[in-house]
From TrEMBL:
Start and end residues of each stretch annotated as Disordered: 1-22, 48-75
Domain of life, per lineage: Eukaryota
Compositionally biased region (Gly residues): 1-13
One GO cellular component term: preribosome, large subunit precursor
Function of the molecule: May be required for ribosome biogenesis.
Biased composition (Basic and acidic residues): 63-72
Name of the protein in question: Ribosome production factor 1
Subcellular location(s) per record: Nucleus, Nucleolus
Entry keywords, A to Z: Ribosome biogenesis, rRNA processing
Organism: Illadopsis cleaveri (blackcap illadopsis)
Lineage summary: Eukaryota, Metazoa, Chordata, Craniata, Vertebrata
Molecular-function GO term, any one: rRNA primary transcript binding
Length: 324
């Protein structure tokens, strides 16, 4: 199908190809047998698509300028987010049942300012250098956190020791092939415990245009798009890691942004350029989390009662269905 579409420019055979490529209606680039020519024709097709899209955009803009105030409102583009399937567990902030659950759940003592967060960060057995550096940098983000190494201890033995030393949360960073790939977050002493898959980890030295080292000021915490009951619980777990009353003088902010059930973590510092302009500097580290399970109580992989488990074949049937 592609052999009759004209010679390749620069091969010395025939006149140069016209700028506008007219493909037949039934043309398929995949039918071209030659790999190099197939790739070349695909690039030409993509270039043609971009030109047509740009020309249509300019035409619509001129039409709107000509109509002025009579121009119709701009069409809202369809995205996976605004086409999301409604979830019956979406939280209403004014719901009395939700307010009662918040007042009696495992995090109530934190939000009532009865407890101060104290975090233990540990790793899997024999962590490699990258995981160790990630834990050390994570400890500079979360105030009042302490890094200890497993030394072969089982998690079931670590948790009672954490409770005896008044730790409120336990974070375990797991790794595979020297790369951090999992995070277990357990709220002490009564749970719950969340297990996340971790990806796209970037340490400070790997971030371009990063700012200076973070200070010891308590950061501000931003939680975005945790709308369902499950997402509400996960958001409260993250909030309970940071002390109340952030020190705004430090201009540091930790963000947990949920989008399509992927939780993106970023750590920034505000830069006030003038009275009206504000910029941000990323301090790092950065990573992405995907919830695998939420378990009642503390970590117990064998006899634990699970509130929610991600089942790919049952839950991932629609791209517009989200759980957080």
């Amino acid at each position: 199908a592609g052999e009759g579409s004209g010679p390749v420019p620069g091969d010395g055979a025939g006149p140069p190809a016209p700028e506008r490529v007219l493909f037949p209606p039934t043309f398929s680039v995949s039918e071209i047998k030659n790999k190099q020519r197939r790739h070349f024709m695909f690039l030409r097709w993509k270039q043609q698509q971009r030109k047509e899209k740009l020309a249509l955009k300019k035409k619509r803009r001129k039409e709107r300028e000509a109509l002025g105030d009579k121009a119709p409102p701009k069409a809202v583009p369809k995205t996976i987010e605004n086409q999301r399937v409604y979830d019956e567990t979406t939280v209403d902030p004014n719901d009395e049942e939700v307010a009662f659950d918040e007042a009696t759940d495992e995090f109530a003592s934190y939000f009532n300012r009865q407890t101060v967060p104290k975090i233990l960060i540990t790793t899997s057995d024999r962590p490699r250098g990258r995981t160790v550096r990630f834990c050390e940098q994570l400890a500079t983000v979360i105030p009042n956190s302490h890094v200890y190494y497993r030394r072969g201890l089982a998690l079931k033995r670590i948790i009672p020791q954490c409770i005896a030393r008044d730790f409120t949360d336990l974070i375990v960073i797991n790794e595979d092939r020297k790369i951090p790939n999992g995070l277990v977050l357990s709220h002490l002493p009564d749970g719950p415990t969340a297990h996340f898959r971790m990806s796209s980890v970037r340490l400070r030295k790997e971030i371009k245009r990063k700012g200076k080292e973070p200070t010891e000021h308590v950061p501000e915490v931003i939680l975005n798009n945790f709308t369902t009951r499950l997402g509400h619980s996960i958001g409260r777990m993250f909030a309970a890691l940071f002390p109340h009353d952030p020190q705004f003088i430090g201009r540091q902010v930790a963000t947990f942004h949920n989008q399509r059930d992927y939780i993106f973590f970023r750590f920034h510092r505000y830069i006030f350029k003038s009275e009206k302009k504000v910029g941000i500097q990323e301090l790092g580290p950065r990573f992405t989390l995907k919830l695998r399970s939420l378990q009642k109580g503390t970590f117990d992989s064998k006899f634990g009662e699970y509130e929610w488990i991600h089942k790919r074949r049952e839950m991932d049937t629609s791209r517009r269905k989200f759980h957080l």
